[in-house]
């Protein structure tokens, strides 16, 4: 059971019913050939409506019981409305209605041709509704694709901007590292210079200490050992 198919059949029936319910009132105010034409049109549209209702009944056979019961009640109302319209058209054009029935009973080929025509019209309506649905689905798909493309473009723009910011950060980090490397080189030079000066100072201090020890030894020698 296809809910979409039921919706299509329901729309087709409502369209046919809206056309049928206007015919009895128009037939009351018409005469001659115009009235005959209206009655023929009523017969054709009524046949199409009956076929639509039969199609709805076939679609409902596989439906859940709760949904099928509700729709079956609605179908009974539809058939009751069609019966009322039949009585109205007979009241509006009694002479032609009876002759029309006689003609249909006497010439089944004409009636069969009318049924074929109504079936063709129904098929054309179904194809039109299906084509409209396909167009709507295609339009919705195009709109979704456009939205996705716009979102993708925005995401790409954001990523490019973020990558640009990260590149600037990397450039600044590289500059800081280069400055740090230069500072480290200068620091190493300063440390080497300080190390050389420290060694020089140590050597000078050792020489001074040796000289003082020599002087002290000479003084002690001259004072205590030399007579």
Automatic annotation (TrEMBL):
UniProt cross-references to PANTHER family, sorted A to Z: VESICLE TRANSPORT THROUGH INTERACTION WITH T-SNARES HOMOLOG 1B (PTHR21230:SF89), VESICLE TRANSPORT V-SNARE PROTEIN VTI1-RELATED (PTHR21230)
Gene3D superfamilies: 1.20.5.110, t-snare proteins
Species: Poecilia mexicana
Compartments reported by the entry: Membrane
Any GO BP annotation: regulation of protein localization to plasma membrane
Entry keyword annotation includes DNA-binding: no
SMART domains: t_SNARE
Chief location bin: membrane
Entry protein name: t-SNARE coiled-coil homology domain-containing protein
Polar residues bias (residue ranges): 96-117
Spans through the membrane: 203-224
Family that this chain belongs to: Belongs to the VTI1 family.
Span list, region Disordered: 92-117
Topology term for the membrane: Single-pass type IV membrane protein
Entries under PROSITE patterns matching the protein: T_SNARE
MF-aspect GO terms: SNAP receptor activity; SNARE binding
Family matches, as InterPro entries: SNARE, T_SNARE_dom, v-SNARE_N_sf, Vesicle_trsprt_v-SNARE_N
One Pfam family it belongs to: V-SNARE_C
CDD domains: SNARE_Vti1b (cd15890)
Domain T-SNARE coiled-coil homology, residue spans: 132-194
Sorted UniProt keywords: Coiled coil, Membrane, Protein transport, Transmembrane, Transmembrane helix, Transport
Any Gene Ontology CC annotation: late endosome membrane
Superkingdom of origin: Eukaryota
């Amino acid at each position: 059971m296809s809910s979409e198919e039921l919706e299509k059949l329901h729309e087709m029936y409502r369209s046919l019913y809206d056309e049928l319910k206007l015919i009895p009132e128009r037939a009351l105010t018409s005469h001659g050939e115009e009235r005959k034409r209206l009655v023929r049109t009523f017969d054709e549209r009524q046949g199409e409506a009956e076929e639509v209702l039969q199609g709805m009944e076939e679609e409902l056979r596989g439906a859940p019981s709760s949904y099928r019961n509700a729709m079956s009640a609605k179908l009974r109302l539809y058939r009751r409305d069609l019966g009322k319209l039949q009585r109205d058209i007979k009241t509006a054009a009694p002479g032609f209605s009876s002759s029309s029935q006689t003609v249909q009973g006497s010439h089944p080929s004409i009636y069969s041709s009318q049924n074929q025509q109504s079936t063709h019209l129904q098929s054309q309506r179904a194809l039109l509704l299906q084509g409209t649905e396909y167009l709507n689905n295609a339009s919705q798909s195009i709109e979704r694709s456009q939205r996705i493309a716009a979102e993708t473009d925005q995401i790409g723009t954001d990523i490019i901007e973020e990558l640009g910011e990260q590149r600037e950060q990397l450039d600044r980090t590289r500059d800081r590292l280069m400055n740090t490397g230069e500072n480290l080189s200068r620091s190493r030079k300063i440390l080497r210079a300080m190390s050389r000066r420290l060694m020089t100072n140590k050597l000078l201090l050792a020489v001074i200490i040796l000289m003082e020890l020599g002087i002290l030894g000479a003084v002690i020698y001259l004072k205590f050992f030399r007579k």
